[in-house]
Amino acid sequence: MIAIINYGVGNLRSVEKAFEAVGAKAVVTNDARAIGAADKVVLPGVGAFGECARSLRASGLDECVLAAAQQQKPLLGLCVGLQLLFDEGHEFGVHQGLGLMRGRVVRFPENGLRVPQIGWNQIEELQPHPLLEGLTEGTYFYFVHSYRIKADDGANVLAKTEYGIRYPTICASGSVCGVQFHPEKSQDAGLRLLANFAALK
Amino acid sequence: MLAKRIIPCLDVDGGRVVKGIRFVDLIDAGDPVEQARRYDREGADELVFLDITASSDSRDIVRDMVRRVADAVFIPFTVGGGIRTVEDMRDLLSCGADKIALNTAAIKNPAMITQGAEAFGSQAIVIAIDARRRMGERETGREGEGELLQSDEPQSRTGNSQIDEPPSAIRHRQSAIGNPPAPGWEVFTHGGRTAAELDVIEWAQQVEALGAGEILLTSMDADGTRDGYDLELTRAVAEAVTIPVIASGGAGTLEHLRQALQEGKASAVLAASIFHFGEFTIGAAKDYLRQRDLPMR
User: Fold this and answer.
1) What is the C-alpha separation between B96 and B67, in angstroms, rounded?
2) How many A×B Cβ pairs under 8 Å?
3) Could you tell me which chain B residue has the CA closest to the CA of A113?
4) What is the number of structural domains in chain A?
5) ipTM of the shown complex
């Protein structure tokens, strides 16, 4: 069972339905016990980093995320959910993240880019990892974000994307992983990635 | 590289897809879920559903449609039409919509844009702007506009100080400082029937400052003509804001799509009739645009 953590943000129904479409059992829940009993955990997130971090802590479910990481259960952050896995976010002030990976979340460079980045962009410089099974260089995913990951440790970066700058969009550290895009809105490629996550041991 | 987007638009009335020709002549063109599935398979980058049902009892039908679409397709989709409150927005987003398009409600209550952006993120807030070109005849006799059109002063950007003011206050200030942009387009509501007495460029900058994530810009002059997008309008708005602009209204050929993306500087093109009746496939449109140096998925 995959627990999709419901702390009041994001289009969770779509994430649940996308897992269902690849034959994985997933449930949207804010019940700490259900999350504790799940064998995989998904941390979604949309909107501003600070707001998401605050909601997650206010719900008390941040402890569930940290516990899942400690128990080495596969954990997948989606969009701001990926960003929350890092040390801190610099969106409307500096906010503390979960610190499961080293790095910060910063705004895109101000060089005439349209921000937020909205639409389909490609993943590049793919590193071998079970999460990326069957995905190739240049595969398109659906992105919506104004801030990006700046990872301290290149070993955590499984793929990058080009938008004004080349930045990490798939990250992992042990059982903890995350993607900047929305796999649940990325058609076949997104479903493949979710199926890969569901198959992780 | 970020791809340009092709977004089929499905007008929905009573839970059925209808096609709009100048928002009057409606022809039934199918079930929304079946249509969504077809576009998903064809490679549409997103979908927009505009609920044009006037009655308030359409809420349940729309909610049901949103749920069924969200269960059937895994690409982003926007729902617009008749959304009046932040609770309406929350309702449709929780049913599985990714974005909400606001038009009249945002004009009546601009603070709703900020409330929506704070509650759901800017990415979920699309502001639909229906624009109509100010014509020569209608210009004459308007107070002060003749001389204003000759002004060489750069047009002022909407400052943060104006965020909390209602649009009417901004409008009056423009008159007072004597500097509306030229050439001009006027914002319309109610399917192009009612003038909102707002300048399109000013309003576009205003909604960006208030927290909108995207602008869906429809030329009411071009809509339904199939003579092409209003490129001047599209470019003027795209250059006035940094959020993405979706061009809408007037697509009749694949070349029109190219023009909106290249000359008009739009991030995406919305089109209804050229796709609905199978005249062109999304795939053919993408091939055409790719061959003309546009990044497409």
Assistant:
1) 6
2) 92
3) B242
4) 1
5) 0.92
